[in-house]
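User: Predict Ras-associating domain-containing protein's structure from this.
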Amino acid sequence: MLFLTIFAYVTLECRFPRGKCSCSGNVGYSRLSERLDEEEFEEEEEDYFINADRTEEITFYNENESAQSVVVEKNLCASDLCQLLAMKNRVSKSVHWSIVECWTDLGLERLLEDHEHVLAAYRDMRSFSSHTRFRYKFRKDYRKYEFFFHPQQFFPPNMLDVNSENINEQNGHTRTNQCQLQYMINEEGKCPVIFSFVWLRDNQKKTWSKHYMVLKEQKLFVSQRVQSIARFFRAAKEKTLDE
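Assistant:
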């Protein structure tokens, strides 16, 4: 009796629509591969992340607080982006246009160099943005190439020992713009000792700290204590006197 009941239950007509149940004769399936192609999967995953990292939309603010959003590609440098932003803002193109990295809470600014990749710099800023706010500004900075146009502002004539052959006998003075610039960028020339300070970010601590820097004889010395720099100058002076 039990066997007949089970047989009758199995032979009943399926109540699901045709093709919606596994008992349908025309429904098939393909067996999954027993072994996944790991190399193909890794290549597709790598291509996905590469494409995702190639572009990103970034907002750039003008002096009047208006803004322009630009899709920045991976290898787009700051100089090319300045020309693009000048066109989008309908202003004349100029070498003085600059991208300025601004940390509003800290009151710090940094001018992006022409060769810098903007997207890489932006992502580096974003890794620190959980602690403070930042934005990019698009504005003119006439000091950008001032070193090349008027080098005497940074190195007065009495700071450099220019050879006598560079002196114009007719006017009795040095051709400042040309001679000083050529002398300072010459690898064999002796540049004066330069002392200044800079704010540096610690990637591990996510904080900014003040460092003192000395540029002497094509070597850069860095210290967090100004007393160490003072001892460095005294030691160098004593060494010169001994010689």
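Residues 145-190 form one domain.
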